[in-house]
Structures are given as C-alpha cells and as structure tokens.
Specification:
heterodimer, A: mainly alpha, about 80% helix, about 0% strand, B: mainly alpha, disordered C terminus
Chain lengths: ~325, ~350
C-alpha cells in the first residue's frame, strides 16, 4: 500500500518537474520578439512581407500567454507542435527517431553495468593482482577520454580496417532490428561499446572502492568465520552492501547518459533523437528542440523513480515514504 | 588491506624518519608535499601539465618559428595533389596539416590555450561557488540547507548536453556560454562535499570556542572551518579540471562550443572525421594531446588525494621497504588461504 502511495506521489512530483522544465524552456524560446524567431526561419535576406507572413503562419503574433496556452493544451494531448522546417509534427519526427536511441540506451546500459560491476568486483577481490592493475589503467584512460574520442578511435582502428579487408558485419549508421538481429547488432556494437566505456570506468572504480571497504568490515570476518564459502561471502554479504551507493550514483548518472547518447549518435550517424536535436540547433528549429528537452526531462524523471525503487529493494534499511 | 595494517605501516615509516634525523614539526601541507614528491607518477604528471601550459603560452612563438599562423591555409604546400592533408614532417609541417591545409601542430597548440583556460577558469569559479554554497548550507542547516541541497541535487542530475543544446539554440554557441555552462555544472559536486565536511567540523570544540569568544557566523565559516576543509576541496578541484577540458571538447565537437576557424581540440577532432581513411595524424595527434592532458590531471589528482590521506594504497607502494613487502606478501597469501587477518597491531619494526 505504501508503495502505491509512494509511486503516486513520485509521479505527481515528476509531472510538476516536467511541467516546470517545459514552461521554462518555452518562455526562454518564445518570449523573444517574434521577429527574431521569424528571421531565423526566413533567412537573413527575407523581405518584411515574408517575415510577416511567417509570423502569422506560426501564430507568433498572438500574445505570449495565448501561445503558451496552446502549447500546454497540445502537451496535455501529447502534441508537441510542428517543426519549422519539415512539414511534419514534432511527434512524428521524434517517434521516427526513437528506435536508434532506444537500441543505443538499452544495449549500452547493459554493457556498462555488466562490465563496470564485474570488473569492479574482480578487482576488489584480487587487489594488486595483474587484473587489478590492468583494470586500474583502463579505468584511468576511460575517465580521461571524451566519449567522442573513444568513438572516433573505434571507427579508426576497428571499423575502417575491417571494412577494408571485406569484413562488413560491423557498420556505422543505423539498421532497424526488423532487418535481422545480426545486422542490427553489427550496426550497434561499436556505439554500445562507446557509450558504455566511460561510464563503465566510473562504475568499476566506484564498485572496487566500495567493495574493498565492505570486505574490511567486521561482519565479513564473521561470515568467513562461520565457514561460508568465499563466493557466498563476497556476493551475498559483500556485493549486496557495496551495491547501494553504486545504485544511488545511477540516479545522478542518468543525465550524463543522455549526453553520451547525443554524442554517440552524432559520431556514428545513428540518426536518433540526439542527432535530430543537434541538427535542430543549427537550423533554429525551436519546436523540435523543445520536444527533445521535454522528452529528456520525462526520461530523467522516470529513470530516477526506477533507481529509487531499486535502492529500496537492495537496501532494506531504506524505507519508501 | 585492513586499516590496522596501514596504521601500523604509517607509524613505522614515521618512526624510521624520526630515527634518521632531528624531529621537526611539519604542517599538514608540508607533509602532503613531501609525500607527493615521493610519488613518481604524480610528479611526472605535474611536469607534463607544466610543459603543456608552457607550450600553450608559447604558441605565438611557435607561429614565428614555423611561420604558420593558426588560421592560415596553405593549399600549395599543405595539401597533396588530391587535396588531402600532408603527413607529419612534410613541407615543414611538424605534425602534418588539417583538412584545408592548415598547420596541425599550431592549431593543437592554440586548442591547448582554449582547453587549459576553460579547465582552469571554470574550476576556479566553480570551486569558489561550491565552497560558498556548501559552507552556507552546512553551517546554517535547516531551511537554507534544504533549499540549497535540493538545488545542488537538481543540478547534479540535470542532463548537461540537453541544456547546452537549448542554450546554443537560443544565444548561439560562444566561449562565454561554454564557460558559464561548465561552471554551472561543476560547483554542485564541490558544494556537496563541502557541506558534508562542514556538518562534521562545525561540531568540533574549537568552533564552539570561537563562538563563545563572540565570533560571528561568517568569521567562523571562513576563518575556522574553511582552512580545515581545503584538503578535500583541492583534490576534487584537481579532478574537475580534466572533466571541464573533456566537457569543452565535447561541446565543440558537437558544434555547440568554440566555432571554427578558432581552433579547439573538440572542433579539430570533429573536422577530422572526414579524413579517417587517408590521414591518421589528423585524428591521432589532437586526441593524444587531449588524452595526455586529462590523464595528467587525473593522475595528479589521485596523487594529491593519496598524499593527503595516508590510508590509501599508492603512497604505501611508494614508500614501502623490503620488510614491509615481505610481510604484506605473507599476509596476502594467508588471506587467500582463508585465514583471518591479524587484528592486533604488531609492534613497529624499529622496536623489535
């Protein structure tokens, strides 16, 4: 029961957050004189008539509150408005570009968590071993390289040589999962690794530190003294306790993940939401950017609710209230 | 490694020092510097950083030497017959040329100016802001703390690229926007750490003593509490510099940051994407400059942290003696066999 009440409260707060973000962005974008927006759209050499026409067409001559009311009413109906440049609704555009982004996020997060956590656990249980040293160096390099450099590097040393030798499984660009799982994975494998690399480095380091601390605790010694197998001690007693701070870090990293998604999409030309947003910036296509920002806010809110629930599941001391 | 073991080693090292020379009082900072100087990796990183800064400052000098200004293209000497960049060492271009025939080495140097300036400047401002917010939130507590802490959390969880996209769409990309954005997203982490430290320090007796002597809240905050939390702040700040450098490069790569023809490592790498097949140097050298810089700052930050906190491992690895190594190996072997680590600190080696 407490859970349902908690969920309802979190969702309501989430809606308020999304509304605040949407309103803030809207006024940031549209409280400017309409002529600025129109000029961006019509090009620098446009005549006053053309500009006036654009203003009327887009409804920019209406009072700002009327425009805002339209925007909010549309938002409540799930309608994000129309692109300035393509004769298409923002909904359609975003829907079309969702599959590459979704594929990227799902695969990337799986690789990131699996690699990050297992490398951290292996390092912590074998401190100072060869594996630990190698993984420490890898972590440092991962932390020191921007996502786009890792991506470019993978293209340079994996994609280009393989394709020159006629091995064409690994590709850039995006292919839908409808074209077969193998093709899809071939297109996604480098983006996944790129997205996962930096974050995996952070989590390896975090997990290693937490687990090393935990394994030094008295109750671990007690568990060993009881004669439990080493694996049981490490996983049931150690990892479970060490995992809680890692999970709480997840909530913070959701935002960083979105940034990574945008960069990876641009590097590999996946054509997802992030790449569309970047293109919209260079054109000044405000409705598309607005739609992207709102979608990003929804994503962050939902991800944080999930992370908090996970937190409560992992650590019985955390009460959902 | 258990804490007792570490304490024991640290004590042993101190006593060995005391036995060697006259005993002198050392401040926390001089102790830290001494430890840092013994850390070869950290010192090498420091030297690399100094060289990088020197190269960035001396960029105009290199323009004079090579005769290649950063934004001048040399279509005749800087490009081969098919219009591709020429390689390192060809026609007096030390690291080759870029896509339109400009000197890559000079452009990397000018990129270093931007990167280092952004890294150092934003971290400095963010540190001041973060320390102030953290001190206020931690010291006053209550309502002030609730508001500031919530705000800090919100900033920490905010997707920065999304805001960068919105701001770039609104104002057009520029150096000012970059500086403001990176600063805005950097202070929160520092504020969080400072707040936590302040919470514990403000309960100490000497703070109470200062208060009973009639010191006002700001005097206590900045003269009594602040000096005692500078150490963790310094560590975090050093580790934020590479983050800021990466941040700037990423924004410039996405064309949301420094705009061409002004050189930045990010936009050089973005331009290089079209030349993967033909010109490896175009990608490799700017990426290497970026990696070396961020790696050096990261390693230096780790080194400072280890030097400030004697419990960490690297320091021990640096100052360990033969006896310690043998003992540790034995302990490790025993630990693997499943035996309990000895919880009782053994007498220091000097006494036995």
């Amino acid at each position: 029961m407490a859970l349902i009440g908690y969920l309802i409260r979190r969702i309501l707060t989430g809606i308020v957050v999304v509304w605040l973000v949407a309103t803030g962005t809207f006024f940031l974008f549209f409280a400017r004189p309409p002529i600025t927006v129109a000029r961006q759209l019509a090009g620098r050499a446009a005549t006053p008539q053309v500009i006036n026409e654009v203003i009327t067409n887009l409804g920019l001559n209406q009072p700002i509150m009327t425009q805002y009311w339209h925007f909010i009413k549309g938002l409540l109906h799930g309608n994000l408005g129309y692109s300035y440049f393509y004769q298409e609704s923002v909904n359609t555009m975003l829907k079309q570009d969702l599959p590459p982004t979704l594929s990227l996020v799902v695969g990337g997060v799986v690789i990131w968590l699996v690699v990050g956590l297992s490398a951290g656990i292996l390092s912590a249980t074998r401190p100072r071993s060869l594996f630990d040293r190698v993984s420490n160096v890898a972590v440092l390099i991962g932390l020191s390289l921007p996502v786009f450099v890792i991506g470019e590097f993978l293209i340079l040393v994996v994609f280009v040589p393989l394709n020159q030798r006629g091995i064409t499984w690994i590709q850039t660009g995006y292919a839908g999962i409808t074209q077969g799982f193998g093709t899809w994975a071939g297109h996604m494998i480098l983006p996944w690794i790129t997205l996962a690399a930096t974050e995996a480095a952070i989590y390896t380091r975090l997990m290693r530190g937490q687990l090393l601390d935990t394994l030094g605790e008295d109750y671990i010694r007690t568990a060993r003294a009881k004669g439990l197998s080493e694996r049981r001690v490490v996983f049931r007693h150690g990892v479970r306790a060490a995992l809680t701070p890692v999970v709480s870090q997840l909530g913070v990293d959701v935002g960083a993940l979105l940034g990574g998604v945008v960069v990876v999409e641009v590097v590999f030309g996946l054509g997802g939401l992030g790449q569309v947003a970047i293109e919209a910036v260079s054109k000044g296509d405000l409705p598309v950017i607005l739609g992207f920002v709102i979608l990003a806010a929804i994503f962050v809110v939902v991800a944080n609710i999930i992370v908090d629930l996970l937190y409560a599941v992992l650590d019985p001391r955390v009460r959902i209230t | 490694m258990s804490v007792t073991e570490v304490e024991f080693e640290a004590r042993g090292a101190e006593e060995a020092q005391a036995a060697g020379g006259a005993i002198e009082g050392r401040s926390q900072w001089s102790l830290t510097w001494r430890r840092l100087r013994g850390d070869r990796v950290a010192m090498a990183s420091l030297i690399v950083i100094v060289i990088m800064i020197a190269l960035a400052i001396a960029a105009p000098l290199f323009v004079k030497i090579t005769g290649h200004p950063p934004n001048t293209a040399y279509p005749d000497t800087g490009q081969d017959l098919s219009g591709n960049p020429v390689g390192p060492g060809v026609n007096g271009f030390w690291l080759g040329t870029d896509g339109v025939g400009r000197d890559l080495f000079i452009r990397i140097l000018y990129g270093a100016r931007i990167s280092l300036f952004v890294g150092l400047f934003t971290t400095a401002i963010a540190t001041v802001a973060g320390v102030s917010v953290g001190l206020l939130a931690g010291y006053f507590g209550g309502f002030v703390d609730t508001v500031l802490a919530r705000f800090t959390d919100a900033v920490l969880a905010f997707p920065y690229v999304v805001l960068a996209i919105a701001l770039a769409a609104l104002f057009g990309p520029s150096l000012t926007i970059i500086l403001a954005m990176i600063t805005f997203f950097s202070w929160a982490g520092i504020a969080r750490i400072v707040r936590g430290q302040t919470l514990s320090i403000k309960e100490k007796e000497y703070v109470e003593a200062a208060r009973s002597l009639g010191a006002g809240p700001f005097r206590i905050m900045f003269l009594d509490i602040l000096p005692n939390l500078l150490a963790p702040v310094l560590v975090v700040a050093t580790l934020y510099i590479p983050q800021a450098v990466i941040f700037e490069a990423t924004l410039s790569f996405l064309a949301l940051g420094i705009q061409p023809p002004t050189a930045s490592w990010g936009n050089i790498l973005a331009e290089a994407t079209n030349f993967y097949q033909t010109s490896w140097w175009y990608v490799v050298f700017p990426a290497l400059a970026l990696l070396i810089t961020t790696l050096a700052f990261n390693l230096l930050g780790d080194g400072i942290r280890d030097a400030m906190d004697p419990r960490t491992e690297r320091l021990l690895a640096a100052s360990r003696n033969k006896r310690g190594r043998k003992k540790r190996r034995k302990a490790a072997a025993a630990g693997q066999a499943g035996a309990l680590p000895d919880p009782v600190p053994q007498p220091p080696a000097a006494l036995s």
